[in-house]
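Researcher: Final request for today, and then I'll write up notes for the group meeting. The sequence and the SMILES for flavin-adenine dinucleotide follow.
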Amino acid sequence: MGVTSDAIAAAGEYRLELRNWLGEHLTDRYRGLAFDGAPTQDWLTRMREWNLLLAEAGYAAPAWPRRWGGREAGVLEQLAHAEEMAAADAPGPINVLGIPNIAPAIMTFGTTEQQERLLGPLLRGEEIWCQGFSEPEAGSDLASLRCSAKEDDDLYIVSGQKVWTTLASEADWCELIVRTDPDPAKKHGGISALLVDMRLPGIEVRPLRNMTGSAEFCEVFFDDVRVPVSARLGAENEGWRVATATLASERGGVASLHLSVRKRIAALLDDARAAGRTQDPLVRERLAGLWAQGELLRLLADRAITRAAAGDPPGPESSIIKIAWANTAQLVPEVALEVLGIGALDGQWGDALTAARAVSIAGGTTEVNRNIVAERVLGLPRR
Ligand SMILES: Cc1cc2nc3c(=O)[nH]c(=O)nc-3n(C[C@H](O)[C@H](O)[C@H](O)COP(=O)(O)OP(=O)(O)OC[C@H]3O[C@@H](n4cnc5c(N)ncnc54)[C@H](O)[C@@H]3O)c2cc1C
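Model: Predicted protein-flavin-adenine dinucleotide complex:
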């Protein structure tokens, strides 16, 4: 099956409609409001307003089914959406993990009551969601998680700790994965997923300040928190399926990440020109190499998107793209400092240098992804 001309035409129409809508609604109050640090009150207020506008127009989650407020946008329409939003510097919805990761899991595994209660406020940004997966001793090896939930009549009593939980300080809800069987036959068994109200007594959230100075993620402690059994997402002890489905949605989004990296590369070219550095042949070589790396990333993404649009299963590029994206995103501020000098540390390039360290960790580390490429793409033996 190939990409059909109807799909291409529909994406073109979608693009124009969104571009017109952004021209009308994206004012300076909202432009450039990306989540890049501690969520201040002002940021939250403006993001909530903007999120509501997006949701009312069907642009908060275009890939979602219409019955939940989406547009059932196909792959090419989703691509057009990402490109137009990036070009206009328009922020996405507030639920950076809720929309792409958590909501699809609720649609797949949730009860009708859970779907009807939770999806609307999540889409509109009225309720903020966090994803409570990682623990101090369970990150890449997530199945080692120890946060426990013991059943007591119609309740689970939850105890343990999560860490690196993005947006937990603002969250109303958490998709929490817990151990419901302490002694399963296999490590991936005995895990369940819960949809936890973050206002329940016994939950303590401690923001973690990282080296960029911001506190976007937190430690979350659960001390005998009483969660109703009805809050379980999916079957008991089958939470691993829910967790992997949640993370698969997260990884699926990387195809359009080249947009932000290539925008940064273009900004660096402008800064280098303005600083009069582009006559130096060594600088030119460095910048040209970086630009080529950005274009390679775009081509990898195009390949992944073409396969998806044609209904083909993901190919090797989907495994490589996160590694390539992380490498390039980290290289941009490094080259910026080489080209612009140490003075550039005191500004956006210094911020970018520290912020970029996280991209080879979040959503699966580069080392673990290299193992996946070695074993599943290259067919090398497991260590
Ligand atoms: C910006 C950011 C936001 C995040 N948001 C969330 C969130 O909202 N919710 C959440 O649950 N988590 C979140 N995380 C946590 C993230 O999922 C974990 O950091 C990640 O899974 C890695 O786990 P870890 O930090 O425990 O490192 P570890 O798994 O302990 O790894 C430590 C080092 O060992 C390497 N390593 C581990 N295993 C192997 C292996 N088998 N082979 C080779 N090398 C290996 C890793 O690559 C890494 O370099 C976030 C992280 C970041 C950076």
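Model: The beta strands are 129-132, 148-152, 155-166, 173-179, 191-197, 203-208, 217-228, 232-233. The mean pLDDT is 93.
Researcher: Thanks, that's everything.
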